[in-house]
Amino acid sequence: MKVVDLDRETVKRGLADGSLLLIDVREDHEFARGHIPGSVSHPLSTFDAAALKALIEADGRRPVFSCASGVRSIHAIAAAQQSGLDLSEHYAGAFKDWYAAGEPIEA
Length: 107
Fold this sequence. Notes:
The structure is a single chain. The chain is of the alpha/beta class. The protein has one domain (4-100): Rhodanese-like domain (Oxidized Rhodanese, domain 1), CATH 3.40.250. It has helices spanning 8-16, 28-33, 49-59, 72-82, 94-100; strands at 4-6, 20-24, 40-41, 62-66, 89-91. The strands form two sheets. Strands 3-2-4 form a three-stranded parallel β-sheet. The longest helix is centred in the middle third of the chain and has 11 residues, at 49-59. It is globular and about 35 Å long.
């Protein structure tokens, strides 16, 4: 399995310049309580490779997974790769790192 760790600054740049699609794989209730601005919800518990592929193709930006602490995003990478999707990047620090750094969040 190929996993590429991205740091907060890389994610911030990608969101700011519109090149990155941040896919939050936390549960809906976690996402609703607070998420990184610009991220989209796709819970790991209801992972749907076809829906994910359609989302990515329709969006056109570089897909990057995120979660609470960087664990579920690795599981999402594994699920995507097992489904034949060539996805390998995730925000290693995830929401906890973003929040701890005082970055803005949306609820």
